[in-house]
Specification:
By secondary structure, this protein is of the alpha+beta class. Helix content is about 35%, strand content about 10%. The protein has 2 domains: about 170 residues, no CATH class; about 50 residues.
Amino acid sequence: MSENDNNKNRTYKLADQRVRETYSKDSKASNKNALDDVYVKFFRWAVDRLRGRDGIICYVSNNSFVDQLAFDGMRQHLLRDFTTVYHLDLHGNVRKNPKLSGTTHNVFGIQVGVGITIAIQKRGQAERSLHYYRVPEGWTRLEKVAWLAQKQSLGGVEWRTLTPNARNVWLTDGMQDDFERFPPIGSKATKAEHGADVQAIFKNYGRGVATSRDDWAYDFDRDTLAARMRRSIEFYNAEVDRWQRRADLTASVDGFVSYDGTRSGLLGSTKPPW
């Protein structure tokens, strides 16, 4: 129904490598999958384009990097790479607040929050600063657009200066200073040092069963689930047979197979499997 259903994350070898060497390497998060988002790669690309020279980058993007754990390394590097960073949080994250409507409250009519980031690099300026402003959460898309038109420039916004903490958290309101003294629930260190005197609630842990196909792999009715599994297996075997009988021996698998999620159990299904 939509070509976007077949859309895969495009690889950018150099940008991917640079993200791994910087944002990912300096992140304390155990799950860093969020750093695969394309907007993260283009932040990295823009910084590398400057090559330490004076300059400005401006992106209108997903703003999950402002407060999510996996982006702690990215936040750290942004304040290293730029002397002044402004972030205008236009909110509209429907996943965080189900009471919002993407079409009503989000400036682009999407599910994730949106922000405008302006980062300035000025050599010779030793002082680093971070400025933040968030529009009211309940504002509609039209109210946000009208507000932007009224403000016109950076100078028209009532910025709040932020002071990140040692863990590279930008939004620290309500956080207690003694948080670091609490024992962790679990960590890679405790998992790797079984029997050692490492303070943690659990010495071992795991992510549990992760199907990445929950709509297909779970159901309240056993017979319905079994029928769905048979349909998925039959479709897979049919595709294997079709591949073996292909006329074009130079065809790539990705371009050959069907991505109809209603038949195969693939992500991106346009209809629920039932």
